Amino acid sequence: MTTGRSPLLPDRHPQKDLFVCDIVDAVPKGDMSSMEHPVFSLSTKPDMRPRRYNRGGNWIEISPSRYGLATVHDRDVLIYCISQCMTALNGGRQVHRSMRFKAYDLLVATNRQTSGRGYELLRDALRRLQGTQIETNLRQGGKEYFKVFGLIDSAEIVKETRDGRMLDVEITLSDWVFDAIENNHVLTLSRDYFFLRKPLERRLYELARKHCGAQARWVVGLDTLRDKCGSGSTVKEFRRLLGKIIEDDIRHDHMPDYFFGFEDDNVLVRPKRDEVVAPLPCSVLQVDEDETFAAARRVAPGWDVRVLLDDWREWVRTKGITVQNPDANFLSFCKARGPHPR
Length: 342
Description:
Elements: H1 21-24, E1 29-31, H2 32-36, E2 51-55, E3 58-63, H3 75-90, E4 98-102, H4 103-109, H5 116-131, E5 133-136, E6 139-140, E7 143-144, E8 148-150, E9 152-160, E10 166-173, H6 175-182, E11 186-188, H7 199-211, E12 218-221, H8 222-229, H9 235-252, E13 258-263, E14 266-271, H10 291-299, H11 305-319, H12 326-337
Antiparallel strand pairs: 1-11, 2-3, 3-5, 4-10, 5-8, 6-7, 9-10, 12-14, 13-14
Helix pairs in contact: 10-12
């Protein structure tokens, strides 16, 4: 029995405009590196603290601009951009680092306010995403970075209404983000991610999605999880905050896809099996790995054929397509994708 106020944000757009349905229905995706490492601040107030995270020989330094560090909620902008790019690639269209879109579409797709305040918050998010500087030796898309870069290179409000409300926005993604898109170093997120109210809840879901996935369980030390979340709390306070989220989930079942629980000084994460998306029907979507793979390499040179196969299977599943001839359908998908845009 659920009692009390729901920890979820309300559905701000229950009756979405038909015009933006295809845009809103793009499958949410996030890049793996920033899902695994604490790139975004959990604070809801300007966070001016530079930070460094070290783990297993990898390190990442994040420095704020005068507007503060990019936040977990600012990440919505990148998720939207990545999702639109991956949808375009899966549809056989080329993508570019610079992309233009309607601000309203982004706000609806990510369950944000479309009031004047909503546009102001989006403007602030763009400032922080452009201003936050990262230096790291992490590999993204097979490249190792030893330079300082922002999460986006630039953002421009191309068109505004008379009262100053943004209409068209153009964003140029950083190499860091675009390399993840080109190399398919992304993971699908639950649409319910955008309804999570607390930044820590969103961060915990990202980590569960990255490290647990569809495995039976993932066990992580409390101190390690705190570091991965980018939390500035003490271990004792972090345990309290996590405990509150676990209690809320027991009452409201609001956390997407995964259960969290304590196991001594560790945290246990396991899928909510009735809710996690079922694995792709690979037995049905099998193709000839000799002839069909060779043909796929000819029509889509430069791509990893197995990556294309995974993309095709997800595309078939999300679109609800009935496949009569898997080999022919897969080759048509590869032909539409074309040469790798290197």
